[in-house]
Amino acid sequence: MKPEDLHYAKTHEWVSVAEVAGQKIATVGISAFAVEALTDLVFIELPKVGAQVEAEQPFCEVESVKAVSDVYAPVTGEVIEVNKTLPDKLEILGSDPYNEGWIAKIRITDESNLANLLDFTAYEKQCAEEGH
Amino acid sequence: MNDESELLRTPLHGWHVAHGGRMVDFAGWSMPVQYTSIVEEHQATRKAAGLFDISHMGRLIIDGPDAQRFLDSLLTRRIDDMTAGQVRYSLVCNEAGGVLDDILVYQIQLPEGGLSGYGLVVNASNRKKIVSWLNQRRGEFDVGIDDKTAEYAMISIQGPKAIEVLDAVCDHELTSLRYFFGVMARVASFRSFVSRTGYTGEDGCEIICDAADAGIIWTRLIERAEPLGGGPVGLAARDTLRLEAGMPLYGHELSEQINPVQADLNFAINLRGREFVGREAIIKAQKNDQQSVRVGLQLEGKRPAREGAVILHGDEPVGAVTSGTFSPTFERPIAMGFVKQTAAAPGTPLAVDIRGQHHPAQVVPLPFYQRGK
Which domains does chain A have, with CATH numbers? Predict the structure, then answer.
């Protein structure tokens, strides 16, 4: 997936929504900007498959050498799959955040917050402002 | 967190900002927490030479006829036997034996009748407290107490190539400088005090120079360190380095609620033939088998334990973590904490509660890291 085609939460998670058998499935991860800002990631606590997550609420934790950070669910729904290869290969969050570095797939149960997500241009603008 | 504009700035502040330093509030100073990656800066120090701006640390001058007697009445470690240029690690305690600060004492004797006295390097977070403690305790002692923090800057260079880098721009031959001794020397032609000290577990030096000269000295050292794999290091890697070296950090392993015996700093206590504030309490603490003591912990898995995490022995809480990180050298989580003495023996299997999950851990001897001789 290309970053230009994704949507983003203000809290730096990316989302790609696909229709599968009539259901909306969101693949989510954290943006390259976030990975670079966090630096030195050493641990991820993946969400549990089956967990009900709510948009803008923490659903996953990453630890850098320095500190623990929450990852926020960018959509509301049920976690149906997690990237089990990530915990032992955390460097792919940096090398390929938008493909191999995906964190979880969420079956969307409430679409109301999707409109709050930013497109690439808007997200880039936000990052540029935070970068100062 | 203070507004950035209200924070104190070291003479190297502009350099840090211009070179990608992520500036944070540290004890009221705007300091670089990292420039690139913590792990890279850590490894640059372990493998080559890391440069640290430590100008935020407090630099005090204690002089006058009673300077030695005055300090000997306040420090846990004797200074009456120090010789010119010698540096000593010591603690300052209150009457209850609680640690007010951990400091370096410098015996300073300038040639040609210049300054004679003691320099103290104190933690930035404790500077005002220590200055006021010294004034409060001055009593009849004929001493001068001067806070010179703003007039001087302080740069640390640490790592296996630190001496090589510094030697090239220093007029004093440094390879023969003894550990925990210092000399007046010219660095990049500027008059400085160079001591073989540090806070990383590596060989290296700390340089005290005039604030106005710090920029050029720093730049010269950076230019020489970078081709060798060294470079600037922020506070985050300073923390991982000192943690691997098993060194306590004030506010974590040391506080007014912790005595030096608990903190396992017996080497910094000299009781014999002297009186100092906190002595009686320390003697009591040496016999106290109920107080918790500082230990090193090695954790299984990859998740670091952070300050405040509860340490368990079986199901029983026996203490808490005071510092924890992911060790870049050992590539696993390490921590220091205080536990009951029954759980403090190396090899004791413990667990650390990290956000509700119990992670297996083991007591290990400190330091975690010791450089090859």
Answer: 3-114 (2.40.50.100)
DSSP class of B36 = S
The residues of chain B scoring below 50 in pLDDT are: none
Quote the pLDDT of residue A1.
86
| Residues of chain A neighbouring B325 (CB-CB closer than 8 A) | 65-66
In this prediction, residue B172 carries a pLDDT of 96
Measured between alpha carbons, how far is residue B95 from residues B101, B122, B271 in Å? Answer: 13, 19, 14
| B140 labelled binding-site residue | no
* Cα of A90 to nearest chain B Cα, Å: 11
Which residues does B contribute to its contact with A (CB < 8 Å)?
33-34, 36-39, 236, 240, 301-304, 306, 325-326, 328, 355
B331–chain A nearest CA distance, Å: 9
User: The tokens of A9 are what?
Assistant: 């939460």
Assigned CATH topology for domain B58-147: Alpha-Beta Plaits (3.30.70)
pLDDT in tens, B152-165: 999 999 999 999 99
The tokens for B51 are 């440069």
ipTM over the 0.90 cut-off:
no
| Mutation for B interface: A39, A62, A65, A88, most B CBs within 10 A | A65
Question: Which chain B residues are within 8 Å of A87, Cβ to Cβ?
Answer: 302
Q: How many residues in chain B?
A: 373
- DSSP codes, B133-162: HHHHH-TT---EEEE-TTTEEEEEEESTTH
At the topology level, CATH places domain B289-364 in: Elongation Factor Tu (Ef-tu); domain 3 (2.40.30)
What superfamily does domain B4-55+150-244 belong to in CATH?
Probable tRNA modification gtpase trme; domain 1 (3.30.1360.120)
- The mean pLDDT value of chain B amounts to 96
- Are B92 and B100 within 8 A, CB to CB? yes
| pLDDT for position A131 | 75
